[in-house]
Amino acid sequence: MLRENRHRQLLRLLREEGVLPVGQIAERLGVSEATARRDLDDLGKAGRLTRVYGGAVAREPVERPFAEEAVDDLADKEALARRAAAEVEDGDVVLLDIGTTTLQLARQLHGRKITVATSNLAVYEELKDDAEVTLVLLGGQVRPNYRSLVGHLTESSLGQLYADRLFLGTSGVLPDGRVLDTTDVEVPVKQAMLNSARQVVLLATARKFPGTGTARICGPQDIDVLITNQASDPDTLAVFREAGVEVAVEVVQA
Amino acid sequence: MLRENRHRQLLRLLREEGVLPVGQIAERLGVSEATARRDLDDLGKAGRLTRVYGGAVAREPVERPFAEEAVDDLADKEALARRAAAEVEDGDVVLLDIGTTTLQLARQLHGRKITVATSNLAVYEELKDDAEVTLVLLGGQVRPNYRSLVGHLTESSLGQLYADRLFLGTSGVLPDGRVLDTTDVEVPVKQAMLNSARQVVLLATARKFPGTGTARICGPQDIDVLITNQASDPDTLAVFREAGVEVAVEVVQA
DNA sequence: TCACAGTCGCGCAAAGTCGCTCACTCGCGC
DNA sequence: GCGCGAGTGAGCGACTTTGCGCGACTGTGA
Predict the structure, then answer these.
(1) 3-state secondary structure of B144
(2) How does pLDDT run across B51-95, given as a tens digit for each residue?
(3) pTM above 0.90, yes or no
(4) What's the half-sphere exposure (Cβ side, CA atoms, 13 Å) at A99?
(5) Does B219 touch chain A (CB under 8 A)?
(6) What is the dihedral of CA B115, A138, B101, B9, to 10 degrees?
(7) A230 touches B at CB < 8 Å
């Protein structure tokens, strides 16, 4: 990536987060810590940020992204998102489901040379100013409360797409491996997504076992990879493994 | 390709992307990196762009056609938008083109019991939290600088819609009534819009006569209503009237 | 005060980019 | 046809940037 681009992105990151350690800056910019340090020095000398021992602080006012506090198991979701981001390869076309877990994933995808297609309006907000990411919005009716697009337009858009990877969220996973959702209107969209991707990755934190939900999205046989965390019900995970699903269990440190 | 042409295209690319590495510039211009570098040097010396190691940055704040043009002839645009809003009836399905004029119209449509379909991301921002307006986004690739959606997804979404009214913006109207636009990728979208609406309303402030633009969107016969203001070229307006267009001329007080 | 873990700064090798030169093509006038 | 000049693409040495290792430094807790 161009240094100029990196600098911009660094400042944007800092505006969002307020404070960041060098290690995370390096990781999220996809460069070594040495380079991250050099960038920090440059921008520090230019007065665009304040350098502190071990990282940097935003000089410009921090703009808090909307309802971040509304997310309950944020740490878990972040961990899953980091793991999911590692699955993504440069050049991929990635399809992101609605929900907050996939939003966390989007935040990990900044600066990647990929195409992101989504009906998740929070993901749009997150990635719209990223110069590297090509962003595609599916059509559909806006549902402000769920920050999503739904309807036959969404489904027909999906019919025109084929993604390398789909990252699917869920409201609950039953012991027999059924993947659920709470809102009926989202179901056909999710099912259309399943048909528009080569690989399907399900993101589900421990609290999604069994979680809630009334409508069945799919079964374990439709999933290729399940990313979850330690505390998840082992019996359910076994069901997924039996169905040939690659199960990745993340350890989340408190 | 002629060098002059290439330079123009390079600047346009840069305006859209903000930052670009030499490799991508060369590729998208269809020349070798050596030539791309020479072009960058020329334009850098002429002060048209800022050269950075490995690429180039658009001169000064990335030209946001929006932010700037939005304040240009704002009073005119507001007047046209008010008039246009009066055309809209409750229950209508309204299709809004990209651009700043239609954004002004969106501002006038708050609280109306209507459905708004658009590829204009500024309109989405404006109306997303409005409880009365049902908002439908067309799909497509996000172009952050123009705050629009483009591509075959946008066109195919339009194929699934039929609106009561289309409100069309333009970059210029020729004396013979041809309606123009500057950016090629938007043209098929606008044309698809023309085919998806019962009534077509063109919004064009005085400065759009003749304005700018290289690509033809449509002719006067495709327009049902033209909303413009006093200062517009009367000969051009006559052409529209002859073609059976209802021409509404707004008086704007300074 | 001291130990220790984490962070920083510097030198070095590798990779990428730049600027220069040179050969080639094309259009133009003689 | 032939030379001329402008523009382009390729090769090559010089330079810049990057990532890594190592020793010096800073902050924290005993």
Answers:
(1) helix
(2) 999 999 987 554 455 554 555 677 788 889 999 999 999 999 999
(3) no
(4) 28
(5) no
(6) -160
(7) no
